[in-house]
Amino acid sequence: MNDMKESQLSQDKREKGARARSFWIRGYQAQMDGQVEKAVGFYRESLQTFPTAEAHTFLGWAYSNQGDLEGAIRECRKAIAVDPAFGNPYNDIGAYYIEQEKWEEAVPWLKKAIQSERYEPRHFPHFNLGRVYLRQGKVQDALEQFQKALDQYPGYLPARQFITQIEGRFN
Questions:
Q1: Contact assessment for residue 127 and residue 94, using Cβ atoms and an 8 Å cutoff
Q2: Cis omega (within 30 of 0) on the bond before 121?
């Protein structure tokens, strides 16, 4: 009898997860289409159905698109509470601090993103950390991070542009 209950609970969880993912995908599509308010609704539906780190992170991204960086950071912290191995919210918090010009506060979040187990695309935290280091006058550290971003994604033009700009200053 216990196995039957566990099987039913597992089935319910899978169904809720599938419905939540469907809402999350619809939210992402709406956000990509520039319909941020609609995306917020879908992300909230997803979270009400079955909370995931992805839905919290993307709801935070939607909030950031609306100019609510504090709300975005709150959602990313919720994402981390749901799944500490998911790297995207760490990078996003770092990026939101950069946007607020809280350079030093961004550093530990970006380092956590770099070290996270589950994160795509991996070049972003290196790039963002390079931006912080450049702002702090740590040119060599910035170059290293921009190069690491290129190692992760060789076609990432912004990292290549920063490297070219820095090298141009010193040649």
A1: no
A2: yes
Counting the structural domains of the chain, the total is 1
Residues in contact with 9: Cβ distance below 8 Å, sequence separation at least 6, in sequence order: none
In a domain, 169, yes or no: no
pLDDT in tens, 4-20: 566 666 778 899 999 99
Q: Where do runs of H (alpha helix) occur along 33-138?
A: 36-49, 53-65, 69-82, 88-99, 103-115, 123-135
Mean pLDDT for 51-60 is: 97
The whole-number average pLDDT for the span 69-82 is 98
Quote the domain boundaries for residue 59.
Answer: 2-89
Taking the mean position of all CA atoms in its chain, how far away is CA 77? 11
Tell me, what's the pLDDT at 2?
A: 62
